[in-house]
Specification:
The protein is built from 4 helices and no strands. By secondary structure, the protein is an all-alpha fold. Keywords: Membrane, Transmembrane, Transmembrane helix.
Length: 139
Amino acid sequence: MASTTPTRSRGMTGIGRVLVVVYGIMALAATGRSFVQIVREFDDAPLAYSLSALAAVVYILATLALVFSARPAWYRVAWIAIGFELVGVLVVGTLSLVLPALFQHPTVWSVYGYGYLFIPLVLPFLGLWWLVRHRRTTS
């Protein structure tokens, strides 16, 4: 029998799984980078290294929010985290080009994620696209 309910009962598939994996990798990479930077040389560039740590927290939160996005609260958290990520990468990326003295040491989002093959620039657009395509209805 075919189901007549419009809700999705299956787990995340396809591009959603790929997004979760890429966000997870970015979370690990940003966490590792920021940890090493803060432990070894925080006094050299506190702004840059704090921004790397912030990026790590955002990637961790976005990963969790995407995994649990079937729940309305987590779906909203995903929107907030990924929207914040997009603003962060655009602002930090632009500032790192316009005011390079602020970012003599690179962050995850410097030059729009150049050190990460521009994945930080592309990822939030894909994440937001996926959220739009998998809009959750509130009951």
